[in-house]
Specification:
- About 40% of the residues lie in helices and about 15% in strands.
- By secondary structure, the chain is α+β, with helices and mostly antiparallel strands.
- The protein is globular and about 35 Å long.
- Helix 1 packs across helix 2 (about 50-69).
Length: about 70
């Protein structure tokens, strides 16, 4: 239902989320799932609800956001 990813060293998923929202795409920063040892570079992507076309669109938007990040 979910894919976990990590930004390169020094990347903060919460900061990246702000840029992604400008591209009309969202994910959940991984820090929401850690009790201890917060990993600010982690992000969780859902593939359970959207169809293949929506996933492809979302990945393209995330790529554009990453280029601006």
């Amino acid at each position: 239902m979910f894919v976990w990813a990590r930004l390169k060293a020094g990347g903060d998923a919460s900061d990246y989320l702000r840029v992604c929202i400008e591209q009309n795409v969202m994910f959940v920063p991984g820090v929401a799932f850690y009790k201890d040892g917060v990993d600010t570079a982690a992000l969780r992507l859902s593939f359970a609800a959207p169809g293949v076309a929506d996933i492809e669109t979302g990945v393209g938007r995330m790529k554009r956001a990453l280029e601006k990040f």
